[in-house]
Amino acid sequence: MTASAPAEKATPPPTFRPPSDFPFYLGLGLLSASYLAVIVAMLLADATFTTPGHLLEALRSADIRYAIKLSLLSCTITTIMSLWVAVPIGYLLSRHQFRGKALLDAILDIPIVLPPLVIGLSLLILFQTPAGRYFQQHVVQVAYEIPSVIAAQFMVACAFAVRTMRVAFDQINPRQEQVALTLGCNRGQAFWLVIFPEARTGLLAAATLAWARALGEFGPILIFSGATRRKTEVLSTSVFLELSIGNIEAAVAVSLLMVLVAVAVLVIVRVSGVHLGKVYHL
Amino acid sequence: MNTGWKALLGTLVVLGLCVLLLHRKAPAPTATTQAPGKVRQHLVLYCAAGLKQPVDEVAQEYGRRYSVEIEPQYQGSGTLLSSLTVTHTGDLFLAADQSYLDLAREKNLVEEVIPLARMRPVIGVAKGNPKHIRGLDDLLRKEVRVALGSPEAASIGRLTEELLTKSGHWERLKEAAVVFKPTVTDLANDLKIGSVDAAILWDATANQYPEIEAVRVPVFDKATKDVLIGVLKSCKQPTAALRFCRYLGARDKGLKTFAEHGYEVVEGDVWAERPEILFYSGGVNRVAIEDTVHEFEAREGCSISTVYNGCGILVGQMKAGGRPDAYMACDVSFVPPVADLFLEPQDIASTEIVMLVPKGNPLGLRTFRDLARPGLKLGLANPEQSTLGALTKRLLEEQGIYAQVWKNVKTSTPTADLLVNQLRAGTGSLDAVVVYKANCGKLGETLEIVYLPDKNAKATQPITAAKATKCPHLVARLIADIESAKSKKRFLSKGFHWVAPEPKQ
User: Fold this and answer.
1) Which pTM does this prediction carry?
2) Three-class SS of residue B397?
3) Residue A185 belongs to some domain of the structure
């Protein structure tokens, strides 16, 4: 705001005009669009390598239908189990200081840092140790069976859920909790009545992240569960199996199917989640 | 109810529902109808992912027909081998090529191995060969984008490196390659997508892609590799596993499917649910091979009719039209008369020709010359009917004393056991008999062996497979068992010497 004092009479005072927002949004738009464009272009390129016929064929195959079912159910189980574990760990890490916290933090990152193959191999070895064998003989057979799919997905997905839940709890002001405590709540009541409802968006984010992560999981499943048709074959395994015999058309068809399933589930969960949020706000 | 309980209950209900849905319909890996009242056998097959198409077809066909559930696990051969090494489970291992089976054998994970097909490296190019690639030198041209298998991960990569290093192309081609891929299917997929112009891959892989054409290269043509299936040590039902292997490797069953999928298949056995082998063996071998043959029969689920007899008689039967699948002679001299029927024989064991006399050797018999002493009462094997007789006769003739010795012969039998028994029966009817050392297993207190100074006083037992057998691979496995360490122990315990190559433990 410079032009003012000396030439009061000569020119009318200039109206204040902030510089245009256009360049800012143009920049944002371009950067966002370029990423979106690549994603869409990838899918379109995929589509050129397959036909609706292949997609229908994939859907008609009982093997693929089994893989879809197993994928959906195992991912859901994995998600719930991840949340059960992620909520307490996230809360403890966010609210409490204790000896060895840095180490604990680092250990929780291991499943994220390790290559997925290594996780599968480690699980396989774990269940061949005497303790692992005992567990498999007396509790439930894991390796190469359906529980191994869930275990492999869980090991990775849970680590992501823990990270998300921790950030979610970090963002909730501890004062609300403290106020609840001064009003006579114990820790548990403060958590369930104040913090937990507050963390719903975090829960939703952790759930979707865990679910998506589990759906895409492949490396550890291949090692720990194998690729047995109609037993441990999930969608990502189907893609690998088709690719491994050079049936790129079918591999792409299954991949697109996976995209459709994932988008459908994520949209439904987010929309209903937002709706749920509104209910809570009332 | 507070939020915590709601959340816990809600998630529990969803979880329970998911588990229920997963549990509800027990999945059947291969859709087959179960014969009522029969317990289904179940075999886990670790199979190289690249072989999925033919194996799936054969496994399903077999499952339907014989009510056996074949559960294939498809992965890269290397990955499978790693899992096997860790878990020690599963029944069968079908690798992309023999190098993985060799590794598995080194790790002592595999028992029997059955060959299915042969593969050789070729240059794969797009259909129509648009870049006019005719040989290795064309791969070095600037405008040609080449993909190679990585020598560390892919067996085709390992072989490519080995062959091209010999031909002097490797260093330059390694520089020229735009990418190294971990499996041969990755290479073929890249060719199909068009991201490379050429790749060195197996002919069998190239044949499975209508978009790919194979260019044969002389340097590669001699370097064939076998596709093999192995029965794992961890297999708890070897008979069922071997039967499936035989089906997969049968020229009129599984191999037909492999051939349809572009594989160059081996000359397999003819399929039979319970194959039959006719095995001619010289009588002397019986004590050493009997148990091995029975064990083989039980494990393979086949029937072996073993005919033990004097080799002269066996040769006579073959001359008259007898066609055994395998033949183990008492001595190498009984192979040439029927050599045109058999493959190259392998010597297995040898045993000395010895004199057997009453304890203390009262007559002081030391050499063949002593047998010519007038008035001796001798037992010899029949020279027409038995190898032992023929060999004894030859030894005596070499020393020019056959006629004199023959005068002392009181009994001549078709097999040596009978001579031992007659001498043991005692009563002084015989002073000495000439037998194999391998016949002297149960001497008791009354008899004594006299070793002869003559170096040629021994018989060597060779084994061989018939050229015309319907099941060359089954017979080869039987022979392999007779050449095994366990069999060697049996030969040694019966007084034979081992002359076959040292069995691998």
Assistant:
1) 0.73
2) helix
3) yes
